[in-house]
Every structure is written in C-alpha cells, then in structure tokens.
TrEMBL record:
Keywords: Nucleus. Transmembrane segments: none annotated. It comes from Periconia macrospinosa. It comes from the Eukaryota. This is Xylanolytic transcriptional activator regulatory domain-containing protein. The keyword Ion transport does not apply.
Length: 542
C-alpha cells in the first residue's frame, strides 16, 4: 500500500479476495472516497454488481464498496498511471523504489533505522498511536518517506540508545536530505495519496521545531491544511466502525482520524487560528476501548490515551464556542452569555479532570509522558477558557477601572461576575505555575508536542494581561508579583527543558524593552509595576 510513488505494474484484482483484505492493503491502489454531492452518487453505486471482494472493475478504475447502510460509502481505486500526465507536467517524475531506499540507507543505515523506530515506539507512540501492529513501520519494507519522517522525529531521543548515543553523539542525521526525500514523495503522492501519506504529513507536523525559539507557525499550519485535505481524500473524516473491512483497519483508521482531529484543535489553539476541521464534517472525534486494537499500547496506557483524546475534543469545543470569529463578535461585550458558556465548559473540564485523576490513581507507576501532557493540556484548556471570560470586561478598559456601584443591582451582578472571573484566572495561572515548579530532569526525556511551547508561554502573558487590567494598585501589584514568580520559575527550568524557552524569550522581550514602554499603563498600574520591580530585584539579589 505504500509504494504508490514508485514504478510498478498495475495489479489485477482477484475477485475471490475477502473484502476485509482490500481497502488499505493493495500495492499502488490508493482509495479515494466518493462524496455524496459528486456526480457518482453513492446511492446509485450501491446497486453495482460487486464481486466477493465488494469491488466492481472498469478498465482504468474500480469501485470498492465498504458500506451499504443507510449512508452507503464507496471508494474509487485508480490505476497509478492514470495520474502520470498531470504528475509529469508538474515535474513530479517517477522514482525508483530501489533508488529511494538506497538513498535513505546511505543517510540512515538499516540498523540505525531499526533503533530509531524502537525509540519512536518508546517516546512518541503513546501520544500518537497512528500505526497498527500488523503493519508497523519496518526499516526494510516501509516507504522511505514515512521512515524518514519517523527518523527525524525520533532522532532527539538517540541518547537513550546505547549504540546511537555514540554514533550520533557528534554528528546528527542529515535532516535536510531526509526532508528532501519526504517532500519529494509528498508532492508526488498528492495526486493519489494513501494512509502512509497521511501518517508522514502528521509526523512532520508533530515534529518539534529544531530551534526551540522559533514556532514555525506558517509552515506547520500549511502542512496541516494539506493533511486535512489528504485525510478527506482517504475518507478519514468518516467513521469506519460499520464498514466491511478488517478490525485492525477499522481501529487504525479511527485512531488516525481522531489524532488528526485533536491535533488540529491543539495546533489551532496554539497558533491562534480557526480550526480547519469542524465537528459536523468529521465523525471520529473521540475513541473507545475497542480502538486500541493493534495499537501496541498496554490497556493502562490506552486508557490514558482515551483521556488525552477526550481532552483534545474538549479543546475543540472551547475554540468553537468561545474563540470562533462569530463567537468572538457575539460574546465580546456580552458578559452573561460569555459567563454561561464558560461555566458549562469549565464544568466539562472539571469532570474530565476528576476522571483523569481517578485513572491516574489507579495506574500510579505508569512510566510514560502522556499523563504529564494531559496535565499540561488541562491547565492550558482552563487558562484558555478563563481568557474568554475576562474579554467582556476588557472591551472598554477605561470603563472597567471605575469602582462599581454595589447599590445598583446591574453593577452589583457585574462586580460579582468580575470577581469570580478574575479569581478563576488567578487560580488557573497559579496552578499552572505550580505545575512548572513540579517539572524535573526526567521531564527533559519526553516528547513535548508543538503546542506545549505556547501553553507554557500563556502563563506569563495571562498574568501580564491581568496585571495591566487590574482595578487598583493592590491587585495590580499582586498580579505583577505572580508574573515575576512565574517568569523566575520558567527561567530556572528552561535550562533543562527547551520547551520553555520560547515563552521565556517572548516575555523577556517585553521586560527588556520595558513594560511601560510597550504597553499603555494606567497610573495605578504603573505604580504597582515599579514597586513589583523593586521587590523582584531584591528577591533575586544575592
């Protein structure tokens, strides 16, 4: 199924094949789902005279039926040569499988590749179980572009392999050459992608920036758009649970689909972009116990992954209800509606956290990074919700600094809501800072997803927002002190945790320039800032 970019003969179908051996396992025959608004209506196609393999053949293409339910679903399987002319005019020529493998093995010897795949299983797979055990990537048989993506994302963990810790101690892999293999294949596969194409794109998106001080927002988001389009071509936006395919293919497709869905949410939140995937157009937004089939994860680890997938889906709800452009415009000055929506989301998040805490108590010795990432995701989601709750009070800053008239019922309710909101923000940033304090050396040995850089950065910036919007000097001073404490803690831990360095750089840049020279500060806020800086200098002075 993985060598669609390579030159080979078009295979004939054996009509005696079982239907569950066909969809994602035919060399060179990559499925493209047939949508219900296209010219080939699935309700017409369901009446084709399919063979035992649920395939009807034409000369240059075949139709594969996977479901004849009330919503019939079929895939189009085309000869690879059908796309030759369009590929040729775009300069995407055929690649010899042998040549491509040799090029990869010149860059990464086969034994090194085996060890890197093992490191991928250990450090990254628990967060992103996007492969199936029966067809897990193999250094001899998997497509070179997929292997190259695995090698680049696993390379930072080479120090945990006895052999690679020596081999790669002074010279890293040639990432530039590896990415040439990946990008060349992705350009070619865009005409007729397969599951390995989607897996490769996802790994490139998930790979942390080589420079921890650079977010690579534009490039990563563009790749995410390509991944979404590729996934829709492959039918990954459908739910395959009732399809006539094997159990392992169903579980893999659901895991991959949900991973793409939640990655879209975390990435959108961290980059400040609207999600590319809407819940109405993507059916697998959470996973079940059965989806762990063939994932290579233990039952305990799979249970934790279920929690992680739920949290990603919840972040999607937060973005949809509080941060879509329509929601922003409708809620920006509507305190009551913003508070009501936020309370519901906070309740869902609290329920998730209780379930997660209960699960963690049942598996206290689970040796994986996933619980740490779940905890960070919880704090990030909570801060994101509270950022929305404070928005209506920031719509008119000058109006907010006046002392509310508690004898006026409307102003009294507003004051109570404001007090609740600011207290909630304080609680969320305080526990997030405590989380940073709890990090230690072992946490430098784990895979931190791309969005975690921004999650940590949000702590200081939310403290700064609250300080500059405080109603009086005392509150502003308290917030500035919280900001200084969080900044000190992040600075202390950033030496061993590169994931903290982007947030530290961004907040340091404001201090370097001077907060009072970057932001318009009200007199009482400026006074609080000056006092806090004096106190902070005394705190760090030896």
């Amino acid at each position: 199924m993985f060598d669609g970019i390579y030159n080979h003969d078009f295979p004939e179908f054996d009509q005696d094949l079982r239907w569950n051996d066909v969809l994602d396992t035919n060399d060179g025959l990559h499925p493209q789902v047939l949508g219900h608004s296209g010219d080939m209506d699935p309700y017409l196609l369901q009446n084709y005279q399919y063979g035992l393999s649920n395939i009807f053949q034409f000369k240059q293409l075949s139709v594969h039926s996977v479901s004849q339910s009330s919503v019939p679903t079929q895939f189009l399987l085309s000869q690879p040569d059908l796309f030759s002319s369009s590929r040729q005019e775009m300069g995407h020529g055929k690649i010899s499988l042998k040549t491509s493998k040799e090029k990869l093995e010149d860059l990464v010897p086969r034994d090194t590749g085996v060890r890197l795949i093992s490191l991928f299983r250990r450090f990254i797979l628990p967060q992103y179980p996007i492969f199936s055990e029966p067809q897990f990537p193999d250094s001899q048989t998997s497509p070179p572009h997929l292997l190259a993506a695995i090698y680049t994302i696993a390379q930072p963990f080479a120090k945990f392999d006895d052999v690679l810790s020596i081999e790669l101690a002074y010279e890293n892999l040639n990432n530039e050459a590896l990415f040439q293999i990946i990008l060349e294949a992705l350009r070619y596969e865009a005409h007729n992608p397969n599951i390995a194409t989607a897996q490769t794109l996802l790994l490139v998106i998930l790979r942390p920036s080589t420079n921890p001080l650079v977010l690579e927002s534009s490039f990563r988001w563009s790749l995410m758009g390509t991944l979404v389009a590729t996934s829709q071509t492959l039918g990954l936006h459908h739910d395959p649970t009732s399809w006539n395919i094997s159990r392992s293919q169903i579980a893999l497709r659901r895991r991959l689909s949900c991973t793409i869905f939640t990655t879209d949410k975390w990435l959108a939140a961290s980059l400040g972009r609207p999600p590319l995937i809407m819940q109405d157009t993507w059916l697998v937004t959470s996973l079940s116990v059965a989806d762990g089939h063939g994932s290579y994860l233990s039952s305990a680890l799979w249970s934790t992954h279920l929690q992680y997938s739920k949290l990603g889906s919840l972040m999607g709800d937060v973005l949809n209800k509080l941060f879509s452009l329509r929601a922003m415009h409708e809620l920006a000055s509507n305190i009551e509606e913003t508070t009501s929506t936020s309370r519901c989301l906070l309740k869902e998040l609290s329920d998730w956290h209780q379930d997660f805490t209960s699960h963690s108590g049942q598996h206290p010795k689970e040796d994986t990074s996933l619980p740490i990432i779940c905890t960070l995701g919880y704090h990030y989601s909570q801060m994101t919700i509270f950022r929305a709750t404070i928005r209506p009070f920031l719509a008119n800053v000058h109006e907010n600094v006046t002392t509310p008239d508690i004898t006026n019922p409307d102003q009294s309710n507003r004051a109570e809501t404001l007090s609740f909101t600011r207290a909630g923000v304080h609680s969320s940033t305080a526990v997030a800072t405590t989380f940073v304090k709890s990090l230690h050396q072992d946490h430098s040995h784990m895979f931190w997803p791309h969005w975690s850089q921004v999650a940590f950065s949000c702590i200081c910036f939310l403290d700064l927002l609250m300080a500059t919007s405080s109603l009086d000097t005392q509150e502003a001073l308290a917030w500035f002190q919280e900001l200084h404490a969080a900044r000190r803690e992040i600075r202390l831990k950033s030496a061993m945790l590169p994931v903290l360095r982007l947030g530290l750089l961004r907040i340091d840049a404001i201090f370097w320039k001077g907060i009072d020279k970057v932001l318009h500060l009200l007199p009482h806020v400026r006074e609080a800032l000056e006092v806090s800086l004096e106190t902070d200098e005394a705190h760090i002075r030896p």
